[in-house]
F-box/LRR-repeat protein At3g26922-like
Amino acid sequence: MGPKRSKVMSTLDSKDHQIDRLSSLPDNLLIDILSRLPLKSAAITSVLSRQWRYIWTQITNIVLDMASRTSWNWNGCVFTTANGILWQLTSPKIHRFELCLPFSTKGMKKVRFSYVESWIHDICVRNTDYIQVQGSCMWDNYPIPTCILQCQSLVVLQLIGGISIKVPHGGLVVSLPKLKKFNFSVEVLDCELLAKLFRSCPLLEDLTLAGEFLESEQCFDLSVHNLKILVIKASVYPQPKHEKFVINASKLQEITLCGTNLDFVRFVNYSNALITANIRLKSILMDKVDYLSRTTDLARLISSVSSLNLNSTILKAFTELETDLLPVFDNLSSLSITLGDGYGSWNDMLQFLRRSPKLEFLRISLPQVFRWDISEQWSGCWSRLKRIGIKYINGTDADVEMIKYLLNHAKELEVLSVYVRVPGNNKAKMSFLREKLFGLQKYSTCKIKFYGRYGLHSPPMTNEVGL
């Protein structure tokens, strides 16, 4: 009786395990699950059964990474295969469309460009919320049809890398009334396109521009926009005679300015909403009055931030201000600084530390050749810091003495991270330096973290010691 009962139970368990619980879910849940998969993976589910044959065609999120060799078999039919899959989609609403385009040889460009154009046209009529198109090679310059600038349902639009907007002979029409986030990171930034886009996007909150502006006297007035995030990594040649952007700073929370000059942007409606700032500008070419005025305005803009990233150019500009014009950075808790050569850059940083009474985290990036100044007059600058990161030191005796100085004077220091790069394939020197730094542990109770690399292609050497 016992063996027979066991056999029956085993048969029932086997049948229970054969139940397809996934297929028993309602179609709307299955569609949601498949929408989270890469497009090719979703399409493959059509072979599972008759029930699954057409479910994938209703997905609402499309991720098409054609630049990844792991996602697609790398051959000339990849665009044809993708086209066959896309044209089977039946959903009238596409929430998200992401397309990453591969490098194209000269002979294949025309065919591939026509495919991309037809895909964009089809996606834009499906009430899409989010579109991202990225060209993996900057010089490919995939032309994107202007219908993408007339998709009135769009909330997020990201155009990145080797792509360009194909402007028709009749002129450019832009209508993006719901757009809140726009990322335009390409080789050349078209001023006419940007001017029309800004006028048509009253809800714009998040703006990223990266590339080179063609010669133009166009000034973009964004004073009516309530931007919360602004990223500009751009250059203009030749240097414009006036500012390129006028920005409403009343609700600005995050800002990044890289590669431009200080007179590139003018801010209006200052507030204390700004939390994070990354300011890494080039040399500043303007007369003394404008120089001081723009530097004072920038210092005022970032005076409330809690996280700040500066390069030596801006650091020097700040320290040249009169004491009453440079604010005290009362909220600043995290500071990253890229220093230039010589004592001047180091002393500029120390003066800035004196005006940051609540600073806890400091990250310093050094040039290849650097001279330390361990004068006792600056010893008080280190007393409040809890974490310090320094990259990259070369392992000289002066470097070791500076580390010893920091351990002696940073009384509240909890973690010191040291990034070392030794030229050549000299593993022995790297190991010797590591032991030398760890030998300084007796000067402090903080933890020392060591990150080392010897040679260009060597594996990183990572160790830590401390309480």
